[in-house]
Design a protein that fits this description.
It contains ten helices and eleven strands. The chain is an alpha/beta fold and 258 residues long. The chain has a single domain, classed as Purple Acid Phosphatase, chain A, domain 2 (4-Layer Sandwich), CATH 3.60.21. Helix 1 packs parallel to helix 3. The radius of gyration is 20 Å and the shape is globular. The N and C termini lie far apart (63 Å).
Length: 258
């Protein structure tokens, strides 16, 4: 009689997720080159799901403006939302962070394309076992006091209610005004004002017991050694470079979509 071994076989190792990190797409509902490359990128990463789990972290400013109480925005961004939905249905897990343009996510993004909203920040563990803190980065520009005051006002409950009560024609006009004003203000600011405060960045990773800080916002690709084995990665702006970072299961590295 053949006796089978009672030794328990260990389960096969799980395939680590393929994680993509991008920021500052500033999609405006048009068929711009940055939008076309984003939609193509979503198809490419969806094709990778057959080989293992795929995660997409969009670290702020996916849209030029987002407010879920205005259904007209859903139609404006229809092609982009359709592309995100198709990627989600293919198996891509999508994570959203608040940006300075799109801080009013709600249940719609969960229902439409399965997005998990991490808000102003979240900690994850990379494949190399380093802990990474992710956030948009606007709060780290501590010298940009004018923007920080504006940020506080635009996110306040009274202003949110005001947008909710506005007819779409008025809200659309206000969105255009805010967009023009913020762009003009940005062009006037020096790199010292608009740049990441490295002391604040070091404090942020320490507060969140992390080794890596990944953010965007400044539209200036940057890597910095923060000391004590900690580092800062400011993602390249998708709206200009169609690029980001990927954790491929072995290392964290930059990538670019041609």
């Amino acid at each position: 009689m053949k006796i089978e071994s009672l030794a328990v076989q260990p389960p096969p190792p799980e395939t680590p997720p393929l994680r993509y990190f991008i920021a500052d797409l500033h999609l405006d509902g048009t068929d711009s080159p940055r939008a076309d490359r984003f939609r193509s990128f979503l198809k490419q990463i969806a094709d990778c799901v057959s080989a293992g789990p795929v995660e997409l972290y969009i670290i702020g400013d996916l849209f030029e403006f987002w407010y879920e109480f205005k259904s007209q925005l859903f139609e404006l961004y229809k092609k982009d939302l359709d592309a995100l939905e198709a990627a989600w249905k293919a198996g891509v897990k999508i994570f959203l962070f608040y940006g300075n343009r799109d801080f009013a996510y709600g249940n719609y993004v969960l229902k439409r394309f399965g997005a998990t909203v991490f808000g102003d920040g979240e900690k994850i563990v990379l494949s190399d076992h380093r802990r990474a803190w992710l956030e948009h980065g606007d709060l780290l520009c501590t010298a940009d006091t004018r923007y920080l005051k504006f940020r506080k006002r635009i996110r306040s409950r009274p202003v949110r209610w005001l947008f909710w009560l506005m007819p779409w024609s008025v809200a659309k006009y206000m969105i255009a005004r805010i967009r023009t004003k913020t762009s003009a203000d940005k062009n006037k600011k020096s790199a010292a004002v608009f740049g990441i405060d490295l002391i604040a960045a070091r404090k942020r990773v320490e507060e969140n017991t992390s080794e890596v800080l990944i953010c965007g916002h400044t539209h200036c690709y940057q890597t910095e050694d923060l000391g004590a084995g900690k580092c800062l990665i400011v993602l390249p702006p998708w709206c200009e470079l169609s690029a980001g970072y990927v954790d491929d299961g072995r290392q964290l590295k930059s990538f670019e979509v041609s």
